[in-house]
Design a protein that fits this description.
The chain is an all-beta fold. The protein has no helices and 13 strands. It has an eight-stranded antiparallel barrel with strand order 6-7-8-9-10-11-12-13.
Length: 222
């Protein structure tokens, strides 16, 4: 049984600078039991240098505590009120600050929305602000670059116009995080596919909005 004092960022596979791969069997504190790729490479008492650029098989940001991400959101939703349906094109800017706990990511988010409603007599633009929170679970995936996550957001959206509109939003989603240089950089490309439900009210009239939402963005984990 060989015990190596190493810093562990993953539970299963760790690649080190000189191209050997060690399989971690058991850990306790800073001690780990590993399987070597072949006999005779090391003996008990050997000191092994681990490159700071070691790779992680999944969740490349496991050493990160925080994440800042942003998305843009283009597309159309259907809004229904008293049996009447209205289309709304949107252009949204979204910012998130996340707390990272290897498998989980969660935190507050802000969305600045520009909705363009078509009531049949021309386009009516409405600016709205969404404040809420999100949470997601990072799935295990055999890739150094790609981490999928399932999650959702919940919050309150409102506008202050002559006909004010406000209400809540629920949006479950699947998000993909692609790390540009896994292990060396925590800059990510983001894509997200979700389904939005808006439960709004304007001057006592209930309005519901539903539709598929596709987002793209950038992130940085640190």
């Amino acid at each position: 049984m060989i015990k190596l004092l190493i810093i562990l960022l993953v539970s299963f596979h760790t690649k080190i600078a000189f191209a050997y791969e060690l399989k971690v069997i058991k850990t306790k504190g800073k001690a780990a039991i590993v399987i070597l790729p072949q006999k005779g490479l090391f003996k008990a008492g050997d000191r092994i240098s681990i490159s700071k650029n070691m790779r992680k098989k999944w969740t490349p940001f496991m050493s990160s505590k925080y994440g800042i991400t942003g998305h843009i959101d283009l597309g159309a939703l259907k809004y229904n009120s008293s049996g009447s349906e209205v289309s709304a094109n949107r252009f949204n800017l979204e910012a998130r600050f996340g707390f990272v706990r290897p498998e989980f990511e969660y935190g507050p988010l802000l969305i600045l929305e520009n909705q363009s409603f078509d009531f049949g007599n021309g386009s009516n633009k409405i600016n709205m602000t969404f404040l809420g929170a999100y949470g997601e679970y990072n799935l295990k995936f055999k890739s150094e670059s790609l981490t999928p996550a399932i999650g959702g957001l919940l919050g309150y959206t409102s506008t202050e116009l002559t006909n004010s509109m406000s209400g809540f939003r629920v949006e479950p989603y699947l998000r993909l995080k692609y790390f540009l240089i896994p292990g060396d950089s925590n800059i990510t490309l983001l894509s997200q596919l979700g389904y939005r439900y808006d439960g709004l009210s304007s001057n006592g009239v209930d309005i519901t909005g539903t539709g598929v939402v596709l987002k793209a963005g950038l992130g940085y984990y640190f």
